[in-house]
Specification:
TIM Barrel, nine-stranded mixed sheet, three-stranded antiparallel sheet
Amino acid sequence: MPGKTTDLGLYCHIPFCASICKFCAFYKEKPYRKDLDCYLDGMEQELDWIRPDRAIDTVFWGGGTPSLLPAKDIARLGEKVLTVAGQQPFEWTVEMAPSTVKRDKLKALKDLGVNRISMGVQSFQDSFLEKLGRLHGPNQIYQAYDWIREAGFENVNLDLMIALPGQSKEDLEIDLMEAIRLGPEHLSTYCLTFEEDTALWVKFSKGQIKQDVEKDADLYELCWKVLSDSGYQHYEISNFSKPRFECIHNSNTWKMREWIGVGPSAASQYQDLRYSNPADINDWLSNVDADRANREGVEKLTPQSVLQDAIIFGLRMREGISTKELKRRFGSSEVNAFLPFLKSLIEEDLARMQSGDQVYLTLQGKLLADRIAVEMLVMID
């Protein structure tokens, strides 16, 4: 396998949402009891089917809203994950929405050995939560956070969104300072993007919402400065953590390790292949019931394709990439093909090199990371 390591992650997609947020383009369904039962049956069948070739190190439940599952369903799915994992995962993250955090659900997660909670806050201000179509208000955020801490979780992430319609620097600073006051171990800050087939995309396409790239860049810089000054390490462009609290599952993904995705729309990179499951619960269930692989868009991986992504995503991380390490993993000739591109980034002051082989992005490079990724993809094509 290109870039094969011993690290193996498991991603479980739980597609149910009580409402559809105006910015979200992920696959989701309303949580009707019949569909929940069919989903859980399907997950048990698919988890039986995958038979990983080694123990699973990290688990991540994303969605959708995993915390919509009742406590008994959380326990049922979690127990199945444990039987397949082959060990207690070193890191087990579950995404939760403030409006769905309940004490019995937290207890079920804690009993399973879940040790990391990621809560989608987005903003602490009612006006912005309403614009995003979120069901919760600030009071629910505080109540949920208190319950998470009372349940004994010592590794908590909060998601915030920046570049929201009408958001000023002062607005963003209010949200950042409130998050810092709560003191989570990890913060993810995502720039609002206008995805097709979302309510915000409709407004954007009609010119009712406009995007100001220069203003968004200023908000990015403010976010990075405030959090870094408050003791959070900026270890990936959109992610900050206190020391030793980086998300291991996501870091392994950005480093192009291996992971298996289960559930509708889940993606995998495993055993020389990259593929995704059908983004429809009925199509996904029909394959599970027939005991056949849920695989769409199957791509045969090559050392070059994995290396390319390892560079693109590696440059988004604080330490950047080590050309020596990449050569050990992928081979010197493959890595040497990318050295002129990396040199050009350094010449444009978008990247710097230290210790003779460690290449990382400058502040300006981080602001242009998406452009750099596109240029690299075009260079290969």
